[in-house]
Amino acid sequence: MVAIRAQKKIWMDGKLVPWDEARVHVLTHGLHYGYTIFEGIRCHRTDRGPAIFRLDEHLDRFLNSAKIYRMRLPFDRSALHQACTDLVRANDVDEAYLRPVAFSGYGEMGLDPTKCPVQVAVALWPWGAYLGSEGVEKGVRATISSWVRNDARSLPPQAKCAANYANSALAKMEATAAGYEEAILLNSEGKVAEGPGENIFRVRDRVLSTPPASSGILRGITRDSVIQLAHEQGIAFQRTDFTREELFTADELFYSGTAAGITPIREVDGRPIGDGKHPLTRELQGLYEAVIRGRDPRHASWLTYTN
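Request: output the structure for the sequence above.
Response:
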C-alpha cells in the first residue's frame, strides 16, 4: 500500500477546493453510521491524453447505490461526470484513482439519515497496483477468510456502501496478519463470493467462470469488462457458484477490480494454483491493458478523454 500524496484540488459539493480545505465536521452522520456510498474509478495515460475508464458505468452504479439506500443526491449524473473530468484537468494528472463519495453530513445524530444533508465529493490521487506490481506479475498468496461475506438480507451487496467494507476490512486484516496478501470470502451458503475489494475468476480446462450476482458479490465494472473481452476472444465462460475445494483444484485463479486490475492468485491456503503460469489470465491482462491505454478501437466508447 502507498500513502496518499496531497493533490491540488478536490471537488466538493459543486466546487473545486484546495486539497487541505476539503473538510467535514467530526459529527458527520456518515462517519458514525456508515451511511456513505462511493466509487473507485481509474484514469489512465494514453496516446491521446488522460482517459477515465468506463466513467459512465461507474456513475450509473454510484447512482444506483444511492437509490438502494434512499439517498437523494443533490447532483445529477451530468454534474458528476463533469466533476470527474474537471478534477483530472485541475490536478494536471494523467494517471490517477478517482473516488466519488456521497454521505449523510452534519445535521442530527441518530440512525435516521434523512435528517441530515447529503454531501458529495470527488477526490483523486496517484495509486499503483492495489496488490502490488509484483503481485500483478507473479500472482498473490490468498487465504479463505473466517469472516463470511455479508448476506443480502443484511446489507445490499449491489450498493457500494461504506458499511459493507467493515466486513472487507476484517477479512483483509486477518489475511495480512497470517502472512497472506489477500483474502477470499465465502457466502453464508459456503460458496465462494469474492475478495475483500475484488471479484474472483476461476479457470479450469480453459473454461472461465465467476460467481453470479446471487452469490452476494458486487457487480464489478472490471469483472464485466473481463467477461466481455472473454466473449470476444471466444473463451468459454459461465457464471456459476463454486466451492472452496474448486479453488484449490483450479488451473488458474485471478482477482479483478478497479484498484487491483487483473491480478493472478498463485496460492490459496498453501496450495499452489495450477502450474503457476496462468496463460489465460495473462491473455486477459494483455487485452485489458490494451483497452485502458486506448489501443483497442473496439472499446473506444469505454474511455472518457479529459483534455
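Helices lie at 29-33, 55-68, 77-91, 133-138, 164-177, 221-232, 244-248, 279-292.
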